[in-house]
Amino acid sequence: xxxxxxxxxxxDWIYILILAVLCVVGYWQIGxxxxxxxxxxxxxxxxxxxxxxxxxxxxxxxxxxxxxxxGYPIHADPQSGTWYPIAWIIGLFHGYTLNLxxxxxxxxxxxxxxxxxxxxxxxxxxxxISFILAIAYLFSGFFVGxxxxxxxxxxxxxxxxxxxxxxxxxxxxxxxNAALLALWAYLFLSAGYPAFVFVxxxxxxxxxxxxxxxxxxxxxxxxxxxxYKYLLISLxxxxxxxxxxxxxxxxxxxxxxxxxxxxxxxxxFCPFSPQCSLSFITPLAVVGQNTMEFFKTDLSMTNGYFxxxxxxxxxxxxxxxxxxxxxxxxxxxxxxxxxxxxxxxxVRMFLYDWVPLMNTFRFPALFxxxxxxxxxLIAGNSLQSIFFTNKKIPLPFYVFSGLFIVIMIxxxxxxxxxxxxxxxxxxxxxxxxxxxxSSFKQHFAVHALFQIVFLSLAVFLLxxxxxxxxxxxxxxxxxxxxxxxxxxxxxxxxxxDPVVYTKDAQAYLNTFPRKFPIPNTNxxxxxxxxxxxxxxxxxxxxxxxxxxxHEGFTPFIFKDFKYLxxxxxxxxxxxxxxxxxxxSSSIYSTNDFETLSKENKADSSAVFxxxxxxxxxxxxxxxxxxxxxxxxxxxxxxxxxxxxxxxxSSMVVLLQNNYYGWTAKxxxxxxxxxxxxxxxxxxxxxxxxxxxxxxYQPKNIIIAYSITIISFFILLFYLLIAGxxxxxxxxxxxx
Length: 735
Known about the structure:
Layout: H1 2-9, H2 13-26, H3 28-31, H4 40-57, H5 85-93, H6 98-122, H7 127-138, H8 141-145, H9 150-171, H10 175-191, H11 194-217, H12 221-241, H13 243-252, H14 264-267, H15 292-295, H16 308-317, H17 324-340, H18 347-354, H19 368-389, H20 395-417, H21 423-430, H22 440-465, H23 469-494, H24 502-509, H25 524-527, H26 542-545, H27 559-567, H28 569-575, E1 581-583, E2 586-589, H29 593-599, E3 606-609, H30 611-617, E4 629-636, E5 639-646, E6 650-657, E7 662-666, E8 669-671, E9 674-676, E10 680-685, E11 688-696, H31 699-734
Parallel strand pairs: 2-3
Antiparallel strand pairs: 1-6, 4-5, 5-11, 6-10, 7-8, 7-11, 9-10
Helix pairs in contact: 2-6, 4-5, 6-7, 6-9, 7-19, 7-23, 9-10, 9-11, 10-12, 10-31, 13-31, 16-19, 16-20, 17-18, 17-19, 20-22, 22-23, 27-28
């Protein structure tokens, strides 16, 4: 047992275990299930994943969500989690709760810190240095500020693994490393925010150019071609695993409002403005009262913190000897910072105008992830040089530290001269809570005092004990406490909802029906309004209540649906006075819509068809106000059975968006689905009793899902077996 413990302590796992513990403790409100996450996580990501879990537990593929914006293909929503193995596992084996969405958040920031630790080692940093870098990443302003954006968190989690494996494959060119790169790339792609994927691809291309140049200079053409071969293998594996992503996007893009280029104004929306650079020193200052007037961006985009101690080492790392890859890290860091500033520099618009795919996403502030990421790595190079190469504290360290301390002291005195700061009251009553009264100046002064203490202690330790291992351990402890304090100061503003308790919110959720009951016969217009609201749930609650709604807080919007809501909202509201299924009283051509609307001749159950469809059906549909009876007999997200008895031939309208993959049968006979009222579905029925069945089982999507699931598990199985064989081989060699 003693031998086993000794062996364990010599491995990386002790560092990984500490990171896991710090993750839970540092984000304790989420880790211990006290308070839930806030804002977009609750409004969008959680209900989407909740729905995915409900569908998986009903032993179906997550294909269609009928409850939001009159239904949409949930498999085509890249932020819903339907392509993501971790979401599959949670959804299938348990289903999503508030604690589990919190667990998913913590799991990914832990994964990100683990990846940073591994990447540090790959860059030949000592384990202790790599651990410090992992801490800085774990509690960085990207994760703290964007805690509400789950896909951003997931992108930050897998980024270090992708970059690390890209470097590892360059050093050890074999099929196993290529397959491992494919795994990390798929996880990065399948649930991350697409913009991070685009930027990362360009970074890898630049690194590949550097590697190619180095191999060419050394006349190792075969070597670099071999590297290209394994990169191609990795790419092929990723593409096979991503079959569902490719096919879903192929069918969805023509239907969507955001399927192409965005406007220049949208491209610079929500920057990490230059004023936000203050967060590098005191991140609490960027969440004070009315700070948005000064920072000109959303609260979630203002935090670029990665530790004031690490910041000093990063600045120090800009000087001195560096390898070519480290110079590239410096270039990536500063280019990303300038891009994150949005309209304040020309970089973001240069990317928008000249670089493919850079015109497809908003939020310049997302570029700050790459600045934080690479600046942390630059700090690692500085720490490695000081503690393990030169073993000497350079004078600039004391100069930069002193400069930061002096700047903070000066600003405190300046702010004090402009008015009473009442620091004592802020510290005693407003720290670690969401304060609507404390100001930017108070937040800066309070956090600056803490930062002065931490930075002064670091200077003292290095001055007194130099570069001993004990000093490095103390520096690690200081970084831990400094970063955890900063995280907790900002937590009530950007991480958790401080006034809502998770157990109370979950108890409210548990009052809603499970699985998929038959929807009510109320007007769709009232369904969302009739749901009793309770904090923190304000949006997308129809997915809990299992009633179809026309509302929805989602980036996935059909063009035709948006046309209805934006261009002819009065008609849209009139249509929504119907239940989910209804019989039409009459049909018209969309060519006559404007005239009929002005004359008020079309009632709420009238159906407008395209002119060609109208000409096809007008002879068979007899206008009659006695439209008969209709009800739903069976219901699931992808299968709806309807029984109706029509007095005259009519149209059965289903208030779900018309989309590729839907089929319909009337009395067991396949019939075409017509687009009704610009976006919904309808089928003609004859007088008398009819059974109508709508099915959403898109063959190509199901095949793509099968390819993705099978190929992903084959990849996992191979990596597990090959990894165990490699470990056994290494153990044999060591003996």
